[in-house]
Amino acid sequence: xxxxxxxxxxxxxxxxxxxxxxxxxxxxxxxxxxxxxxxxxxxxxxxxxxxxxxxxxxxxxxxxxxxxxxxxxxxxxxxxxxxxxxxxxxxxxxxxxxxxxxxxxxxxxxxxxx
Length: 114
Fold this sequence. Notes:
There is one protein chain. Helices cover 0% and strands 48% of the residues. With 114 residues, it is mostly beta strands. A hairpin with a 6-residue loop joins strand 5 and strand 6. The chain is globular, with a radius of gyration of 13 Å.
C-alpha cells in the first residue's frame, strides 16, 4: 500500500504564498493525483486534481486562480503552489489518488492569519 508524506505547511499571513509537497512511497506516474484539505470541524474537501501527464488540471472554485497543482513523476512528488492565501484556506492539506483513495497521510497544516 502506498504511503503519502505531506510537508511544507506553516503559519503565514493573508496574501502570502506557500508551496506544499507530497512524496509518495512508490512510483505514481500512472495515477491521477489530487490535493484535499480539511478545516477543523469540517469534512475533507477536494482542492485540485492533475492527470498523469500534467495535461489537465481541475480546481475547486474556492482556490481557482490562486493555487497551482503540479507533479514531478521522476521524484514521485506532488506539489501545490498556493498564492494570495486567505484565512479560509486554513486547513490540514492531504494528497492522495484522485479516485479510489488509499491510506491517508498525516497531512500538513496550513494556517493563514488575517
